[in-house]
Amino acid sequence: MSRPILEVIALDVQDAVAAQTGGADRLELVTDMAASGLTPDRETFAAVRDAVDLPVRVMLRATDDFAAGDAEALEALCERARALCAEGAEEFVLGFLDDTGRPDLAAIGALLDAVPGCRWTFHRAIDRCADRAGLRKQLDGLAGLDTYLTAGSADGVTAGLAVLCAEAARTAAGEPGYLPHLMAGGGLNLGHVPALRDAGVAAFHIGGAARLGGWDTPVSPDAVRVWRETLDG
Question: Contact 184/205 with Cβ under 8 angstroms?
Answer without folding.
Answer: yes
